[in-house]
Each structure stands twice: as C-alpha cells, then as structure tokens.
C-alpha cells in the first residue's frame, strides 16, 4: 500500500518510515508537490486536515498528515500550534530553542511541565477522513541536550516523564515507542492494517 505523507519535513519523514514500516511512505516532494501549505488552523487537527486535504485533492492514494507541537504549562499552553513559528518565520532550530528557554527564564524546576501533542489524519482514496491523537507528558530542562533530527528542534529541550534524557538523547526506536507522533500513528497503522484485512 502506497501512502503519501503531506509533509516536506525530512525529519518527520524519517520517523514516519520507521513507525509505518511495512508500508511505502512517500513525501510530497516524491510525488512532485512542492507547494507550501499555509497552516492557519486554530488546532492541531485543523492544520493536519488542511495539509491532508491539499494533497488528497491532487492524488488518489492514501494520504496522511499531522500537526504537532509542544505546549508549556507555565506559558499557558504556548507555543502550541505556533511551535514552528513562534521564534519568527524562518527561525533556525537553535533560535527556536533559545527563544523557548528565554521565555522560561525564572521558572524553577518542578514548574516546567510540558507536553507534546499530535493530531494525525488519514484520508482514504475514497475521501473518508479519520483523526488519531497522541500526547506525551514531560518537562523542559534548563539547558538543551542531544542532537535533534532536521526540523525537530524541541527534542533537545523535552524530557519525557519517567526519563532523565531528552528526546534528542535517546534512540529513535525508544523515542518512537513513547512519542506523541508514535502513539497517534500506531493507531493509524492499526486502522490501515484492519482495512487491508477487510479488503
């Protein structure tokens, strides 16, 4: 089964090919779509649906998309859907990390709770839409650690609950087993496997 992931984020594509092993997962560039999709939704689900629908209107394959972000309790849930843009359009991963840590200056350990959230969307070739949600709780350390995949800058400043290392310091397999994206897309994968069994 061929699945097109509505993303141009190479880091996400690497993760997705591992999570959805057994399926052929292509990115937008692989099928010749290079448009930037404007993500102006108010929720992760709205943005994910917007991306998936944009691609699904152009091809008749299974299309998946997600919108993810980090939500920081002490900042009222910010940056949320603005996670990629809240240090300014085109900010580098390092600038995003520095901006986040600056916003959290003076917030003590124990009060730095945060969570990653993903809304994953599947659109079938018949146009049926399904949404799957994943969430992982953790905290923001005082300093970054590890090396993040391309365009996944927050991994160096997120320590999942029950661990003492950031997402960027643990193996990809370990991260995928517990991450927000991993949880959402494993549910999506189960749905696809059931679809195959039924067909």
Describe this structure in words.
The relative contact order is 0.17. Helices cover 30% and strands 22% of the residues. The protein has helices spanning 10-19, 44-56, 93-103, 172-178, 180-198; strands at residues 2-5, 24-27, 62-72, 113-123, 129-139, 159-160. The longest helix is centred in the last third of the chain and has 19 residues, at 180-198. It is an alpha/beta fold and 199 residues long. The radius of gyration is 17 Å and the shape is globular. The chain has 5 helices and 6 strands. Strands 2-1-3-4-5-6 form a 6-stranded mixed β-sheet, with helices on both faces. The protein has one domain (2-198): Maf protein, CATH 3.90.950. The model has no long low-confidence stretch (mean pLDDT 94). Strand 4 and strand 5 (129-139) form a beta hairpin.
A few lines on this structure:
By secondary structure, this protein is α/β, with parallel strands linked by helices. The protein contains 5 helices and 6 strands.
What attributes does this structure have?
single chain; 199 residues; alpha/beta; Maf protein; six-stranded mixed beta sheet; 5 helices; 30% helix; globular
| Backbone shape | globular
**Distance between the terminal alpha carbons, to the nearest Å?**
12 Å
Give the oligomer, counting copies of the same chain as homo and different chains as hetero: single chain
**CATH class group:** Alpha Beta
Contiguous helical run count = 5
Named CATH architecture = Alpha-Beta Complex
User: What's the Cα radius of gyration?
Assistant: 17 Å
In round numbers, the mean pLDDT is 94
Relative strand content: 15-25%
- How many strands? 6
Structural class: alpha/beta
Report the major sheet. Answer: 6 strands, mixed
The domain tally reads: 1
